[in-house]
Amino acid sequence: MSKMTISKLLELQKALKERKKDLSSLTAENSKKIRYWGSTEKSEEPLYDAVALDEMVTELNNALYEISAELKQINATTEIEINVDFKHLMRPIPKTSKLDG
């Protein structure tokens, strides 16, 4: 467990999501090495260990879950004060007199 600022945590979350995306793309069809033997025979071999790849993606998912849960907990308990009149901003738009007649 390590302490960090919310800003740093958000950047880490972004980097982990990108890493997960990269690892997930390795499970696609193009992650195989194709060898050709002569003109008709070919063999396909996986470039990466599927179990190890799955474990890494699972660890990333768990870390992203923990980050998300922690951020939501912080948001649920942190109050901020802003000077915005929401009722004024969400008021209905008045009709013009042209529509009334």
Gist of the model:
The protein has 101 residues and is mainly α.
Portion in beta strands:
5-15%
Oligomeric organization of the protein chains: single chain
Total strand count, please?
2
Class from helix and strand fractions:
mainly alpha
The general outline is elongated
Q: SSE order in H/E notation?
A: HEEHHH
Uncertain segments are none
N-to-C span = 68 Å
Helix content: 55-70%
The Rg value, from CA coordinates, equals 26 Å
Describe the structure.
This protein has 101 residues and is mainly alpha-helical. Helices cover 55% and strands 12% of the residues. Strands 1-2 form a two-stranded antiparallel sheet. Strand 1 and strand 2 (41-46) form a beta hairpin. Helix 1 (6-25) runs antiparallel to helix 2. 0% of the residues are buried.
Which features would summarize this protein structure in a list?
101 residues, two-stranded antiparallel sheet, mainly alpha, 55% helix
Please render the helix and strand layout as text.
Layout: H1 6-25, E1 32-37, E2 41-46, H2 50-77, H3 86-89, H4 97-100
Antiparallel strand pairs: 1-2
Helix pairs in contact: 1-2
